[in-house]
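Hi everyone,

Forwarding the result from last night's run.
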Amino acid sequence: MSYAAQIAIAIVALLHFYFLVLVMFLWTKPAGLRAFGLTPEQAVRSPHALAGTVDQIADDLVERRERWGISYIGVGLDSLHELAPVVARMAGT
């Protein structure tokens, strides 16, 4: 593999890591808001983030299902315990 190709691959890998950090950890922080041109309200209302109390999150998930047809979400293993009360609240909806 040529040196130029290795540099291109490294740049793409770094950009992917940067976007991952922005979306996963900085979504509602000033850096994430600036990067995506969002207000704090828009970031919280986005279908890409969950924030709030158990009732607020459950209500948001129901609204997203009705508005956008989103019926499945992906959650990291480290967040499953925190999401358990939301799942219990939504059971049967």
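The mean pLDDT is 88.

Cheers,
N.
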